[in-house]
Specification:
Blueprint (H helix, E strand, L loop, with lengths): L5 E4 L3 H12 L4 E4 L4 H6 L5 E2 L1 H9 L4 H6 L1 E3 L2 E5 L2 E5 L1 H5 L3 E3 L2 H15 L3 E2 L3 E6 L7 E5 L5 E5 L2 E4 L17 E17 L8 E3 L6 E5 L4 E8 L10 H12 L12 E15 L2 E2 L2 E3 L5 E2 L7 H22 L3 H28 L7 H16 L1 H12 L5
Helix pairs in contact: 1-6, 1-8, 8-9, 10-11
The structure holds 8-demethyl-8-dimethylamino-flavin-adenine-dinucleotide and P-hydroxybenzoic acid.
The site of P-hydroxybenzoic acid (PHB) has 9 residues, from loops.
């Protein structure tokens, strides 16, 4: 006897969307989340949804607020040599992206769960995974009241992000790890001020990378490349604004609107993949299995693509006793993952100031930027990766 068919660890985009997709197939799941509902609904992270992500959310009926409040974008700007070079995403690919905060997707998915009476347990602790190589694995944990619980399932989905417990539950030697750290981090700022430009601006400057993004007509999102050893306490709002002004300056003159800083934080950058994304009856999805630096805006979109594959694989396995898709789940995901890993590394390398680079490498970087901005073949390659390659 099982308590539920799929035990899902983590109520981020991966865990919530998986639970919802499974429900549409008539498969029941329980989501266990370490944080509170309020915390996960407020966590500021991704902003860019690829076209395939937007279409999937719309198809399953959780895209109505996204359709109204999401900001469709048909181009982006590469800013270097003190000028803008527009990449016309839609003209080049026929597709677009939508700016809509990750926490808004999380809120929409939680609301859909509540609406349908689907179980999410927040504030759980001491989560441990057991019996992963059996056909009836189980999860032990403490609920919000501190009571010890056990959840027996047919499958466990590890959707608990990079710092979760699922991946470390796999015995040593079973996974191959690919890890790459970058000699810089991002300082992210959310500010109450209207965007200063209608599109995203990815800036390469001698002082380091800067990004202008947004959340709404009133809220701007900005990022600065900083040393990973920097402490947020040393970055006053004034210091942040003056650094942004310097890096976003153009020869023609650019006005960056300043305003109250609502939130700020520093995130290190890394690329990380484990292979395979499965061990027995444990399937990993999203950041639990792979991380990309945010310059390509791919992390959340990859999480969505993973759970789309996983819901299909688990439907075949649990409803039709057909394990073929489950056996090929990892390979299918990893093809898209590695494409996104390469694209994210390429965007990161092209736009950041590497403290260890010599003048030769700096010249190569500028040459790559100028080529991307002037060749429609190079611009199309960037654009088709950015808007999201079609699902296999
Ligand atoms: P999440 O979102 O980290 O969710 C994992 C959930 O698991 C919970 N958890 C546990 N629950 C129970 N027991 C445990 N032991 C647990 N341990 C952890 C956590 O509390 C959490 O709720 O992973 P998921 O679902 O795989 O989603 C991945 C995305 O969050 C991530 O890839 C993106 O945010 C990355 N990202 C971006 N992705 C994009 O597609 N487009 C973007 O524009 C974009 N910009 C960004 C980003 C990430 C950023 N940061 C802060 C890392 C910008 C930034 C600055
Ligand atoms: C964001 O708006 O948070 C954002 C936009 C583009 C990125 C990363 C983050 O590449």
């Amino acid at each position: 006897m099982t308590d539920t068919q799929v035990g899902i660890i983590g109520a981020g985009p991966a865990g919530l969307l998986l639970s919802y997709l499974l429900r549409l197939e008539g498969i029941d799941a329980v989501v266990l989340e370490a944080r509170s509902r309020e915390y996960v609904e407020k966590r500021v992270r991704a902003g860019v949804c690829e076209q395939p992500t937007v279409e999937l959310l719309r198809e399953i009926g959780v895209g109505s607020r996204l359709a109204v409040e999401g900001l469709p974008h048909h181009g982006l700007s590469l800013r270097f040599d003190g000028a803008d070079h527009r990449i016309a995403l839609t003209e080049l690919t026929g597709s677009s992206i939508t700016v809509y905060g990750q926490q808004e997707i999380v809120k929409d998915l939680i609301a859909a769960h509540v609406d349908k009476g689907m179980p999410i347990e927040f504030d759980v602790s001491d989560v441990e995974l057991h019996g992963l190589r059996t056909e009836s694995p189980w999860i032990t944990y403490r609920d919000a009241a501190g009571t010890a619980r056990e959840l027996r399932c047919a499958v466990i989905a590890g959707c608990d992000g990079f710092h979760g417990v699922s991946r470390p539950s796999i015995p040593d030697g079973e996974l191959t790890v690919f890890d790459h750290e970058y000699p810089f981090a991002w300082l992210g700022v959310l500010a109450r001020t209207p965007p200063s430009h209608e599109e995203l601006i990815y800036t390469r400057h001698d002082r380091g990378f800067a990004l202008h993004s947004m959340r709404s007509p009133e809220i701007t999102r900005l990022y600065l490349q900083v040393d990973p050893a920097e402490r947020i306490e040393d970055w006053s709002d004034d210091r942040i604004w003056s650094e942004l002004q310097l890096r976003l300056e153009t020869k023609e003159g650019f006005t960056l609107h300043e305003g109250p800083v609502l939130e700020k934080g520093i995130t290190p950058m890394r690329s990380f993949v484990v292979e395979p994304m499965q061990y027995g009856r444990l399937f990993l999805a999203g950041d639990a299995a792979h991380i990309v630096p945010p310059t390509g805006a791919k992390g959340m979109n990859l999480a969505v693509a993973d759970v789309r594959n996983l819901s299909r694989a688990l439907t075949a396995l649990l409803r039709h006793k057909d394990g073929e898709l489950a056996a090929s789940y990892s390979d299918r995901c990893l093809r898209r993952v590695w494409r996104a890993e390469h694209f994210s590394w390429y965007m990161t390398s092209m736009l950041h100031r590497d403290p260890n680079a010599d003048e030769f490498q700096n010249r190569l970087q500028l040459s790559q930027l100028r080529y991307t901005a002037s060749s429609s073949a190079a611009a199309t390659s960037l654009a088709e990766n950015y808007v999201g390659l079609p699902y296999e």
